[in-house]
Specification:
The chain is mainly beta. It has one helix at residues 7-29, and strands spanning 33-34, 39-40, 43-45, 51-53, 58-59, 63-67, 77-79, 84-85, 90-93, 96-99, 104-105, 110-112, 114-116, 129-131, 133-136, 141-142, 147-148, 153-154, 159-160, 165-166, 175-177, 182-185. An eight-stranded mixed sheet has the order 2-5-8-11-16-19-21-22. Strands 1-4-7-10-15-18 form a six-stranded parallel sheet, with no helix packed on it. The protein has a six-stranded parallel sheet with strand order 3-6-9-12-17-20, with no helix packed on it. The radius of gyration is 18 Å and the shape is globular.
Length: 196
């Protein structure tokens, strides 16, 4: 049985799709490198030439792709194919953030590759930043409100529990949770020929 959309739902879905196509065409015109058939609902991006997105990715409302606001000839955020980014996700890249393919990200996730330093006698904005990398493999599932910090590398098929604060790297197939995140299980079966 074919479900008929009510006029209200049809109008809202159509307008969201049209706005996504306009937004992505505008970003591409301003230098963002991207593949085909991506969808980006309302969100914010800056330094578009420093962002590279593959194909078939979906960014829902409130996603921020936020490279450091400074001139740079390379890519600071690189995203593979077929990822789903739920609402209110932020990727904050001062160095380099790489996300593979076929990942799912829950709402409210924060990914950053830098930390503020601190010391006596100086206000925080006068302190230098510690900058590193973040790499997330393929087929990962990152739970709602997780935070992934500088220097973290997650192997393929990792699962990060909701609200986890990930401060160190974990190998492929890890199930992690907590503050700071710790290994709960590494017994997930990884499809043959996919582990890197």
């Amino acid at each position: 049985m074919i479900e008929r959309l009510k006029p209200e739902a049809l109008l809202l879905k159509t307008s969201r799709g049209i706005m996504s196509r306009f937004r992505l065409a505008f970003y591409r015109m301003l230098g963002m490198k991207m593949g085909r058939s991506n969808r980006m609902e309302a969100g914010r991006c800056r330094r578009l030439t420093q962002i590279e997105i593959g194909s078939y990715n979906a960014f829902t409302e409130g996603c921020w792709l936020w490279p450091l606001d400074a001139a740079f000839d390379g890519v600071r955020i690189r995203i593979g194919d077929r990822n789903y980014f739920n609402r209110d996700l932020m990727i904050d890249a001062c160095g380099y953030v790489e996300i593979g393919s076929d990942n799912m990200f829950g709402p409210g996730i924060y990914i950053t590759d830098s930390n503020h330093t601190f010391g006596h006698g100086l206000v925080p904005h006068e302190q230098p930043m510690q900058v590193g990398d973040v790499k997330i493999g393929n087929g990962c599932w990152i739970g709602a409100r997780a935070i992934i910090l500088k220097g973290v590398e997650l192997g393929d098929y990792c699962v990060v529990g909701a609200g986890a604060v990930v401060t160190k790297s974990f190998p492929a197939g890890s199930v992690i949770a907590g503050v700071p995140a710790r290994l709960l299980s590494s017994s997930l079966s990884i499809p043959a020929g996919t582990a890197h």
